[in-house]
Each structure stands twice: as structure tokens, then as C-alpha cells.
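REQUEST FORM: STRUCTURE PREDICTION
Request ID: SP-0412
Submitted by: Lab K.M.
Chain count: 1
Length (residues): 122
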Amino acid sequence: MNEEQSLLVEKAKESLKAAQLLSEENMHGFAVSRAYYSMFYIAQAFLLGEGLTFSSHAAVISAFGRAFAKTQRLPIKYHRYLIDAAQVRTDGDYSTARKITAGEAFENISRAEEFIQLAERL
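STATUS: Completed
RESULT:
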């Protein structure tokens, strides 16, 4: 793991901690957003290891799927976690009609923890 990848992993950990704190304060919409960013930073770190960088969220998610899920280098579930988290994050950040539940926050925080553990193992 190079220095930039290590920094992304550390940023992911900080984002996860923020998600946990926000969830504890019943700010579930903001918590899912930070959990998503934790996963996003890990996806960026994996892609960086392949010499790939992208400027949009959609491009990172798509490239992560192509490089790691489609090739089965990583379990497909991690790409699904990232896709699902991106949608919930959009709702949490922008929707006034939909309230993010504590269960959704817990699920996304748990998935973000898995992402970080995966990065640390590999």
C-alpha cells in the first residue's frame, strides 16, 4: 500500500467514526452519508493500486465494479454495498421527503466497517 492509499484508508476510518457519532445522535441521514464516504475512500484506494483515478462518484463506483467485482478479485457484495450506499447517501443528503432510519444507518456503518477491514487485510 502506498502513502496515498494509506491516507485514503485513514480518511475512511475518520469518516466511519463520524458516521458512528452522528448515528448515536440520531442524525441518521448524515450518518449514512459519512458511511458512504468511508466506502468511497476505500474504493478509491483500491483503484489507486491499479493506477486508476477518477473525478466523479459514478466513475469510481463503475470502475470499482469493473476492476474488482466483475473480475471476482473481490466479492461482488462490496460493489453492491457501494452502489446501495450511494443511493441512501443521496437520499440522506438531498431528500426532504424520505427520512433515513436508524436501521439503515446501522447497516451502512457495518458495511463501511467491512470495507475498511477488507482494505486492511489486503
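NOTES: The CA atoms of residues 28 and 105 lie 6 Å apart.
Reviewed by: T.R.
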